[in-house]
Amino acid sequence: MRLVIRQDYDAVSYHVAKYVKERIKEFAPTANNPFVLGLPTGSSPVGVYRNLVKFHQAGELSFKHIVTFNMDEYVGLPRDHPESYHSFMWKHLFKHVDILPENVHILDGNAKDLDLECHRFEEKIEAVGGIELFLGGIGPDGHIAFNEPGSSLNSRTRVKTLAYETIVANARFFDNDITKVPNLALTVGVGTVMDAREVCVIITGAHKALALAKCIEEGVNHMWTVSAIQLHPRGMVVCDEDATLELHVKTVNYFKSIEKVHEQLIGSDNMVFHE
Amino acid sequence: MQYPVALQTSSLTASAPASPEPHTPIPENEPKVIKITNCKILRDHKIVEHDAIWIQGGKIIDPHKFFWYQKRLPDQVLDAGGLLVVPGFIEAQINGAFGVDFSVPSDPETYERDLVLVNRGLLKYGTTSYCPTIVSSSASVYHKVLSHLKPRAGSAKTGATILGAHVEGPFINEARIGAHELKVLQASAKNGYSDFKAVYGLEGATPEAQNKLSHENQNSVKIITCAPELEGIMESIPDLAKAGITISVGHSMANISQAEEAVQKGATFITHLFNAMPQFHHRDPGVIGLLGSRFDLPRPYYGLICDGIHVHPNSVKIAYDSHPEGVILVTDAMSAMGLAPGNYQLGNMNVTKEEDRVYIEGTDTLAGSVITLDACIRNFIQFTSCSLIEALEAVTLHPAVLLGIQETKGVIKPGADADLVFLSDDLFVKRVFVAGEGVDLDAIDVQVTEKF
What we know:
Chain B: GO terms for molecular function: metal ion binding; N-acetylglucosamine-6-phosphate deacetylase activity. The complex is a heterodimer. Chain A is α/β, with parallel strands linked by helices.
């Protein structure tokens, strides 16, 4: 696993966006061989999307041959509700870029048969040949997507009941009224994310520091589901200085030093490396 | 720690609804979808950048729904070149333009042809909807001209939308007659609604019937300017309001209590504030005093002729400072508006038109206003130092709310008509869309009246 530490939220966002852009450029997607991207919602990726839009507007990145799969969506919330994840993705990314609508996949929280919807989602991922790069955030309780503490680390896309902490955290988007927050969601499983050929988790802010420490310095544990990244052959965590507050000094120093070595060896423009 | 009540366990069964229908109905044979990018947009009292306007079937649509439900990309993407895109302007008071005078009845064919000429010409100045204004006239004149002025939708070919007529008179006070003719004034309306019906030739036998016509866009009278202090007028106001007509106080000698009573009874507009009404007096502020009404009495909208001539710039600023939410800019333009400088014979009047004003030939007397609505906006900002948004809303949102059409006109939001004006940074009209179609402004020929 690589741990990339940057100064602050903006630097993290820029780094991840640039990484995504370079990966796509290197992949050189075509209509028959699109680049399949897994995408999160929440506050962590907003800066990444902003930078990706800037790259697109500068003509450096086209979304024409990119297929996307989002991680999750609330159950029972109308698709055009301002807080639905459809609305989030439209507002922050899709409306600014040239992605084809049929290449966008987000779980339908209003489907008549939710289990079938989850199965279909997994089938669609398989049909395009799996996800090339899955971006994600992390909750303060170490969850990835809506895989709350206690989720199986082998789980697939399914319906989940949201943890109390998550509902409270989301209340700020629903007039601070926790009875208005949906308490069910469809989410990709931990297994679904880890099946991607590469996983990149964005972790910023002091309130995520404990979760980061639990996920990378302690064991693989279903109470901190992001810890499954320890078993991924190509996992990356990008974080800011504040998020390292609970890590051992040794850990931070180690990862900072190997990044320096890499820069000297292959140059900062060649940061796409294979393990 | 309480778990929130109402677990959505029922959603796990088949009783959960299928993906909801989109709210904006998507046309069956799916006309072209146009996306306008690289623009600044006046929307929700803000100027928004890095966004786009999506148009389909002559209306503005919600692109979010279009993307998710129709799963299509736009058929055409237009680069607005960084211009400011605002809703098409709405003109509440204009007597004519390009040599045409709405109050002069001619044979139906000529009148129609002249009307379309003005509809198209007004687009050059950004006006996409308007109320043709008729000065005080005899009943026979009203019956003739109003038949042409029922609401009609605009298009890129036929020009601006007609919202219905603004009949300025004849129930006005002869002491504030302005340029109207004395012999056609009506001094009273003893029979209330019936008198109005008789003079204008309204089709609805009762206010309720007229209101029904109004909902079907069959009412030719949209705004009535009247003097509430005349006999029978005050009592008629509630009935006229019930008939779906906007009542405006103007050409009046009303004192402040009469003016406030008119507003209480349903008047919602003041016709060209300051003009054709008594001067402001500190002990009886009259109609102008409506701008100082206390909070439990709704202050009406007020029209301002913003050419700097009919109202002194300082007076404009005083009105704006006292009631900024109520301002509606109007031109009150007469038939010479839009003509190139020169001498013309308009009706029974010979005039000399200069660039921005018109005189009775051989005199220093102004023959009327020839300001254009986009020039009003520029003047208004200069006179009052108001914000760009306030000045633009004075010709879009405010008149739309006054006339009750703010769901489809004067706003940029899903469901509204795609009437758009593209403005340069110095607020000149560069491009116009009517009902979702771009207009070739250069192809509009309005100079048909001969100079001599």
